[in-house]
Amino acid sequence: MMSSDGYTASDGPLAQQSSTNSESYGPINQTILTGPLSFDYERSKSNSPKLKLNPYSWTKVANIIFVDEPVGTGFSYAKSSEGYNISDTLAAAELYEFLLKWLKLHPKFLTNSLYIMGDSYSGIIIPILVQKISDGNEVGQEPRMNLKGYAIGNPVTNTHDDLNARIPFAHLKTLISEELYESAKNNCKGEYRNVDPSNAACVDDLNIFTECTVKIYTAQILEPDCQKLSPKPRPSVSNWDPDTLMEDPVDLLQSITHLPEPRRWCRNYNYLYSYIWANDKIVQQALHIREGSISEWVRCNESLVYTYDVSSSLNYHRNLIKKGYQVLIYSGDHDMVIPYIATHAWIVSLNLTIAHDWRPWFVDGQVAGFTMQYTSKKYCLTFATVKGGGHTAPEYKPNECLAMIDRWLSYYPL
C-alpha cells in the first residue's frame, strides 16, 4: 500500500491491481510496469540487479494493492494440492474473498473510492470480479466496498475475436500486403481462427501470413524480436495454429542466471532481472515471503492446473452498464497480441452513446494516443489508445500512462 504526492492514504483512491495471463504474475508488475520501483539497467550487472524509484509509478496517484493471482503465480501458494486447481471463475472468486478479508483488516480504507485494475488476461477476470463486488454490495455483504469503476489495459475479452483481429491488424500496420489481406479475407470469409483444414486456399494464405510475421515481436511490433531466449518453438509456417498467438510473447528460460551479450538491446533481457531479483533470499526476506512456501519464483508457472471456463467477458461488461461505473479501457496501438481494433470492436458492440468522438489526447504537448468516450445514463466508458505502446502499454509509455490514469481517476478528460 503506497501513497504520495497530491493526496493522503486516508482519502486517496484505492486500487486493486492484477496482471498478465493465467499463468504469469509477480514482481514484474511492481518493478517494470506501474509500481514504485523499477530496475536500474545502467547500474545493474547480469547477476546483481539494482533498483531505483519509478518516477512514473501509479502509486503517485492512488493507493494500490498488488496481488499475485491466481494462486500458484508469483509468491502466492495454497496449503493443499487441490488449491492449485484454478479457473477463471475461481480466480475471480478468490480475489473477491481476498478483498473482503483485506478491507476487514484495514477498515480505514472502506470509505475510499475503489477501482479494480489490471491488464492482459485480467480482461477476463476483472469484469467477473467487478460483478461479484456489485452483487455483494446489493445483497448487503459486509464490508461494503465503495466501488467506483474499473480499468483494463490491452484486455483479453473474447479469445476468438481477439485472435481473429490479428490479420486485419497486420494489414493496417503494413506487415502483410494488400493482395494477401484481400485474398485471405475472401478465401477465409473473415474467419482466421476456426479454419476448415480442407479449405486449402485459406490455409495457404494463413501460412503466408505466418511466414511474413513469424519474426515480428508481437508484444510491440516495432521492437527487436528476442525469441531466441524462449524455450517455446515458433509456430510452423506450414501448420497455422491461432492458439499459439495467446502464448506469452516474452516468456523466457527461467534457468538463465546471467544475461547474454546481445548485439543489440532486447526488452526481453530486462525480464531476466526479475527472475534473479525475486529468487534472492535477502529480497524474499525483505518482502516477508513465507519460507518454504515456494521452491522457486518463475515468471510463468506452466505447471498450474488452470481451466479456461470463460471464453468471453463481454456479457459481464454488458451487465455492468446499468451499474453506472466509470470504466477505462486502453490499448497500446502497436500490440499485436491483443490488437486495439479487436478491443474497440467489442466496445462498439455495447451500443453505447458516443459522448465524445475520436480525438487525440496529449501529454507534454505531444499526441499520446487517441480516445473516445461512451455513456449510458451514469455509466461512462473511456477508450484510449497509447501511441507507440505495446503489450502492455505502461511498460512502453510510462509517462503517458501515468498521465492517463491520473486524469481518469480525477474524472478529468484525457
UniProtKB/TrEMBL annotation:
Gene Ontology CC terms: extracellular region
Biological process GO annotation list? proteolysis; secondary metabolic process
Annotated Polar residues bias? 15-27
> Which InterPro entries does UniProt cross-reference here?
AB_hydrolase_fold, Peptidase_S10, Ser_caboxypep_his_AS
MF terms from GO for this chain are: acyltransferase activity, transferring groups other than amino-acyl groups; serine-type carboxypeptidase activity
Which UniProt key words apply to this protein?
Carboxypeptidase, Disulfide bond, Glycoprotein, Hydrolase, Protease, Signal
Keyword Transmembrane helix appears in the UniProt entry:
no
One Pfam family name is Peptidase_S10
Where in the cell is the protein located? Answer: Secreted
Q: Where is this region: Disordered?
A: 1-27
Q: Does the keyword Glycoprotein apply?
A: yes
Q: Which family does it belong to?
A: Belongs to the peptidase S10 family.
Q: What is this protein called?
A: Serine carboxypeptidase-like 18
